[in-house]
Write a structure and sequence with these properties.
It is a single chain. The chain has 333 residues and is of the alpha+beta class. The protein has an 8-stranded mixed beta sheet, sandwiched between helices. The chain has a 5-stranded mixed beta sheet with strand order 12-11-13-17-15, with helices on both faces. It is 31% helix and 24% strand. Helix 2 runs antiparallel to helix 3 and helix 5 crosses helix 8. Strand 11, helix 5 and strand 12 form a beta-alpha-beta unit. Bound molecules: 1,6-di-O-phosphono-beta-D-fructofuranose (FBP) and magnesium ion (MG) (2 copies). One magnesium ion binds next to strand 5.
């Protein structure tokens, strides 16, 4: 079989298919290179002294792991000099990071969750990086936080890397979803899955069930019906999986279907869920929709939400279309 590298794939998309501009291609290549560096650091584990806490907190009051901080630095450094960027924003930084030496004017803005699945770092379970690319608004001078507050439908690219038994990079530029596997000996990303598709129906669901007592009635009803199995309203048995790394749960769903849920709950009624709209929900929603699935916050399509702040949180229901539509429907009843 002919090996197609990420660069070859992107050049084809740019030159033959006219799907992406050269500047976006370069930007994606820089992000992919940064993910390769993060993958190397993850792979060293205790030998690289990258495990454990960094002894600091991020803007959302979460304890930062050494790898959260390191991955953020790797992405910042690579993209400061590499891509056609105006500014970056990260889950781990309080505010935006404008590019000091913009070339030629920086037409894109990059957002990322540098290390997703932080609670799994120290126990050698799959973790990842999630990213999203927006266009800088026309006529933008000095980038501000407000320039980032665009709905997910405006994304021009999104993707994630999973650092697991294999390191993979899953990418969309709005033309389907493709998966590249890191050839660790050659140091190159090789196209291994074209046009990933999520089946509309599934028998697998993912939710942190330890929060069940706090769920609102629509989520409780939906999950109770799944748990009731063959003899319940759904008339079939469902299996449950929860990795606690969104990247790994979404990667499973892109490969074999399923529904992933992180709902808002009654613990903190003012907090609309745990996951972040700009760094987690939007890029994953873009990928999932491009693979034929659906993504909502229980009420509306995630990518239609108008963000009001950079670190906004959101409830997430994504994956196999018929299941996402069902649980979303329960919220309307
Ligand atoms: O620990 P919980 O409540 O199960 O939450 C797990 C969720 O939190 C996250 O780890 C949040 O991401 P970060 O590690 O980037 O903060 C998701 O990847 C995952 O789905
Ligand atoms: Mg995350
Ligand atoms: Mg993170």
């Amino acid at each position: 079989m002919k090996r197609v590298s990420l660069t070859q794939y992107l050049v084809e998309e740019q030159r033959q298919n006219n799907k992406i501009p050269a500047e976006l291609r370069l930007l994606i290549e820089v992000v992919a290179r940064a993910c390769k560096s993060i993958s190397h650091a993850v792979g060293k584990g205790a030998l690289g002294e990258v495990l454990g806490s960094a002894g600091s907190e991020n803007v959302q009051g979460e304890v930062q792991k050494k790898l959260d901080v390191l991955s953020n630095e790797i992405l910042l450094e690579a993209n400061e000099w590499g891509g056609h960027l105006a500014a970056m924003a990260s889950e781990e930084m309080e505010t935006i990071h404008p590019i000091p030496h913009r070339y030629p004017k920086g037409e894109y803005m990059l957002l990322f969750d540098p290390l997703d699945g932080s609670s799994n770092i120290d126990v050698n379970v799959s973790i990842g990086t999630i990213f999203s690319v927006l266009k800088a608004p026309d006529g933008m001078q000095e980038p501000t936080e407000k320039d980032f507050l665009q709905p997910g439908t405006k994304q021009v690219a999104a993707g994630y890397a999973v650092y697991g038994p294999q390191t993979v990079l899953v990418l969309t530029t709005g033309d389907g979803v493709n998966c590249f596997t890191l050839d660790r000996e050659m140091g190159s990303w090789v196209l291994t899955q074209r046009n990933m598709q999520i089946p509309a129906d599934t028998k697998e669901f993912a939710i942190n069930a330890s929060n069940a007592r706090h769920w609102y009635p629509p989520v409780k009803r939906y999950v109770d019906e799944l748990l009731a199995g063959k003899t319940g309203a759904r008339g079939k048995d469902f299996n449950m999986r929860w990795i606690a790394s969104m990247v790994a749960d979404v990667h499973r769903i892109l490969n074999r279907g399923g529904i992933f849920m992180y709902p808002a709950d009654a613990r903190e009624p003012d907090k609309p869920g745990k996951l972040r709209l700009m760094y987690e929900a939007n890029p994953m929603a873009f990928l999932v929709e491009q693979a034929g699935g659906a993504a909502t916050n229980g009420k509306q399509r995630i990518m239609d939400i108008q963000p009001t702040k950079l670190h906004e949180r959101v409830a997430v229901f994504l994956g196999s279309k018929n299941e996402v539509e069902r649980v979303t429907g329960y919220h309307g009843e």
